[in-house]
Design brief:
Number of helices: 24
Radius of gyration: 31 Å
Distance between the termini: 34 Å
Strand content: 5-15%
Shape: elongated
Structural class: alpha+beta
Helix content: 55-70%
Length: about 775
């Protein structure tokens, strides 16, 4: 085993680099054709999507779970008792609802006639609970009631036009002065359309300011934003077409927009930065764009592929709902990569040498050109590898370093970031300890994370489902918002034994811990199934309700039918959410293992360093744990939740950690590859592993900082969304990128790389022979 690694075939690398170089140069030279093709594709996709695109829906099931099996049993034996239930809540603060019996009967009759409605229960004629807490359907004071409406499909999938019929049906009650609100998934259907693009506009506005402040040039600031917008709109059109073939969740386009804008701006920024430096070095615009595509474009291609693979890795969860969320985000990442490799070079070719002509202050590139001692020392990409060196080498070249690698010359001209890097070089242990302490403090709340489902009680009070939730909680207790349907299938039990079974089961269902009340068992019309309804003492998203569902399904009901051939189930919306939570929790370690393993292999194949790859995987895990901790503190502990429009403390939506892990691991590869590439190049040129860290940190700090601020602003802008899950993802992703670009890239990576020294690039010869050679930034020829 040795630090010296066999070089890959330079001819192969040159041919690979040549494809990207030729693509970028061709697009820059024929910019009119490329831009017209992109705009034509944009228009065509939008036209076709509007004509044939599908809708987004949260109508999904998890086959094989006890809640789904119970629902299937109900649908087979008692269709009117199965399906998907929602409540229409009626309240009159001044008088008893018994005086509105005729209006109530008219309303229930009209609801029963609506399409996809299996049944509607009149609360004034239905039996109320007795011998325990009041759970309706009519409150003890007679001022609040709820009509249970059962649908054959999820009401939230019926389309907003369906509400016209519901509004018409409840009009007699409203005309009589009663307040009528829609709960459950029917209430979700009635939520106002919040797709006003405000989040995207805010993210764009902040991105413009960051780029203008960071680089000074108006065209350089606008170009990444324009190309990212075109790519995202194309991606969303393609996602709409995919939605015609399969069901995507309603949050899918928002997630795709969030990720697509973030990576699209970042990828374009990397190419624009390298292109401007190539122009400073004397290249003509076409050659500069070609070289930028062959170098930074290669890093974009590798990073984009890593993000896509990480997102597609969500299919390992085995849950189509989550896998499709990853697929939705991957669509816009694909268009962002294609745009970076074709549209960005075309725009650069169109602008030519005028990229810095319009500026709000002296562009940063000009300042660098004025202060740098010569073209060799001011290359944005860092020192060039010596002749014959390539990413396959992991030891310094025999030849002496060129002018670009002279430490004395660099230190005479480099500024704040280089001096900071030298401080890290002198005291790496202090910086490492400081970074670890910061991450540990931020990650501490993750030990108390409570996964669950966010209920209607966290929604704004302007939403009808929130108002229905509050009315139900006040009149019947919080558990009334998440009734649990208990199902006992006794079709295999002999008729002679069924009476004893019912008596035994009814006895077992008395005094169940955390159950406010369990209604008496009732047989279906065919006598093959017994049903009852259980109400928790807590809200549907409370941990006690989750415990009640698991206790009923795992212990109480099986014991109630022990010794018989009966099968038992707990079903309903809340039970399905608990099943979903259990599956996600059990699959999360597998997702983490797959994504971490992927990141390790990519870094190892690119940089041929075992310890570099281990460092990347571990630091990414630490940074994501820190972002988890911030999300738990804000939403679950309520530290700042009200300021974000979240009512009360809410659990962490069960699939958010899984989504965050895949997305953040993929996005962090951008900065990881960008920084490590410069460190590797500098080490190949100088042979000084510590000085190479300082050099790389200085030349990447501004670009990484600007890119991170842009991505943070894009993600944080989604905090204004009314969707709590979108808020969680926005905050989690924004914090993750911020931590990754500051604590990890500015403290931990420089400190660890300095401490590892030459050992960072060690790989056993046998492993080097079997690993593929992934060239992150092309060879020296590709860099111009």
């Amino acid at each position: 085993m040795s630090h010296q690694q066999p070089a890959h075939d330079p001819g192969t690398a040159a041919r690979r680099a040549g494809v990207l170089h030729a693509t970028g140069a061709w697009c820059a030279r024929h910019f009119v054709i490329v831009i017209v093709l992109w705009l034509a594709a944009l228009a065509a996709v939008q036209v076709v999507q509007h004509a044939y695109g599908g809708d987004y829906s949260d109508n999904f099931s998890i086959p094989g779970t006890q809640s789904q099996d119970g629902l299937d049993v109900l649908e087979a034996h008692a269709p009117s008792a199965g399906g998907y239930s929602s409540q229409v809540v009626v309240h009159d603060a001044d008088k008893s609802l018994s005086g509105l019996s005729s209006q109530m009967s008219t309303t229930v009759g009209s609801l029963q006639k609506l399409p996809d409605v299996l049944s509607a229960q009149n609360p004034l004629t239905a039996p109320s609970s007795s011998g325990g807490p009041d759970v309706g359907p009519l409150s003890s004071d007679g001022k609040t009631a709820y009509i249970t409406v059962r649908f054959s499909v999820q009401p939230s999938t019926l389309g907003s036009g369906y509400l016209d019929g519901v509004d018409s049906a409840v009009q007699p009650l409203r005309a009589a002065g009663a307040e009528v609100e829609y709960g459950g998934s029917l209430g979700e259907l009635a939520r106002p359309d919040t797709n006003d693009r405000t989040s995207e506009a805010i993210g764009f506005g902040v991105a413009v300011l960051v780029l203008l402040i960071g680089f000074g040039s108006l065209l350089a600031a606008l170009l990444p934003l324009i190309t990212a917008l075109i790519c995202v709109v194309c991606g969303l059109g393609l996602l709409g077409l995919l939605a015609a073939a399969t069901t995507f969740a309603t949050v899918s386009p928002t997630l795709a927009t969030m990720i697509g804008l973030g990576v699209g701006i970042d990828y374009a920024l990397f190419l624009v930065t390298r292109h401007r430096q190539n122009l400073m070095d004397g290249s003509d615009p076409v050659a500069a764009a070609g070289a930028a595509t062959a170098t930074s474009g290669r890093a974009v291609l590798l990073s984009g592929c890593t993000v896509i693979i990480a997102l597609c890795g969500l299919w390992v969860s085995g849950i189509g709902f989550i896998g499709k969320l990853g697929l939705a985000a991957a669509v816009t990442v694909v268009t962002a990569v294609l745009g970076a490799l074709t549209l960005v070079p075309a725009m650069l070719g169109m602008i030519g040498r005028h990229i810095d002509r319009i500026h709000v202050r002296k562009p940063i590139a000009e300042v660098e050109a004025d202060t740098a001692p010569g073209p060799e020392t001011r290359r944005e990409s860092g020192p060039e590898p010596a002749a014959g060196a390539g990413p396959g080498h992991t030891s310094p070249p025999a030849s002496e370093p060129g002018p670009s690698s002279s430490p004395g010359q660099e230190r005479a001209t480099h500024g704040t970031w280089h001096r900071y890097a030298q401080r890290v070089e002198r005291r790496p242990w202090w910086f490492l300890a400081g970074g670890v302490v910061v991450l540990a403090v931020l990650a501490f709340p993750v030990f108390f994370i409570q996964l669950g489902h966010i209920g209607d009680g966290a929604d704004p009070k302007s939403f009808t489902d929130r108002r229905a939730y509050d009315l139900m909680s006040s009149a019947f207790g919080p558990g009334s918002n998440g009734p649990l349907t208990l199902v006992i299938d006794q079709s295999e039990v002999p008729q002679s034994d069924r009476s004893a079974l019912e008596s035994q089961a009814q006895q077992a269902l008395t005094k169940v811990p955390d159950a406010a009340v369990v209604t008496p068992l009732a047989a279906t019309s065919d006598g093959d199934v017994l049903t009852a309804t259980a109400y928790s003492v807590a809200a549907p998203q409370d941990a006690r309700t989750t415990g009640l569902v698991n206790h009923l399904s795992d212990d109480v009901l099986p014991d109630a039918v022990s010794g018989t051939a009966a099968n038992t189930y707990v079903t309903g919306t809340t039970a399905a959410q608990v099943d979903f939570l259990d599956i996600v929790s059990s699959r999360l370690p597998l997702i983490i293992a797959v994504v971490v393993g992927l990141a390790f292999l990519v870094i190892l194949a690119v940089f041929r360093g075992v310890l570099v790859a281990v460092k990347a995987a571990l630091l990414n895990v630490l940074s994501i744990a820190a972002s988890y901790g911030v999300v738990v503190a804000v939403f679950q502990w309520g530290w700042g939740g009200p300021a974000l429009g979240v009512s009360g403390d809410v659990p962490i939506e069960s699939y958010v950690p899984m989504m965050m892990f895949a997305i953040v691991f993929g996005l962090s590869m951008d900065y990881e590859i960008f920084l490590l590439t410069r460190i590797h190049e500098a080490w190949l040129a100088t042979g000084d592993p510590k000085a190479s860290v300082a050099h790389a940190l200085e030349i990447t700090a501004r670009v990484i900082t600007c890119a991170a601020l842009i991505m943070v602003s894009v993600f944080a802008a989604f905090l204004i969304s009314d969707n709590i899950v979108v808020k969680m993802l926005g905050l989690g992703l924004a914090v993750s990128v911020l931590i990754d670009a500051t604590v990890v890239r500015l403290l931990l990576v420089p400190a660890v790389m300095t401490l590892l020294g030459r050992a960072a690039w060690w790989t056993p010869r046998w492993l080097d022979r079997i690993l593929p050679h992934l060239d992150a930034e092309g060879d020296a020829k590709a860099r111009g």
